Amino acid sequence: MDEPIYVVVSDNDIPHPRWGLDPGGPLVHETYTKNATREAALKRAAGMSTWGRCRIARLVFEDDSTPAGHTPAPSTPAQDQR
User: Fold this and answer.
1) pLDDT tens, position by position, 12-52
2) Tens of pLDDT along 44-68?
3) Taking the CB of residue 31, how many other CB atoms lie within 10 A of it?
């Protein structure tokens, strides 16, 4: 798989009902990278209204290592300024 990795980011995680460990807040949802296409993220986000507004984000790695089977995204001048 030589495509970028896309994830769903929501405005508000739901506090855990039994343990109350997590007070909630913005959340990047877990997904397997082998199936993390833009289309899959859009489909998943469409059914996640419980978490508030959902957006799709493309993962950009800050180092040279990427998961097996993925191609690193090309850097832009804004990414190169550290």
Assistant:
1) 876 666 766 666 678 898 999 999 999 999 999 999 878 88
2) 999 987 888 899 999 988 886 666 6
3) 16
Cβ neighbors of 40 (< 8 A, separation 6 or more) are 6, 31
Beta strand ranges found along 1-82 (DSSP E): 6-13, 25-28, 54-58
pTM comes to 0.64
Dihedral of CA atoms 71, 75, 76, 77 in degrees, nearest 10, equals: 180
In angstroms, the CA 70 to CA 45 distance is: 22
Residues constituting the chain: 82
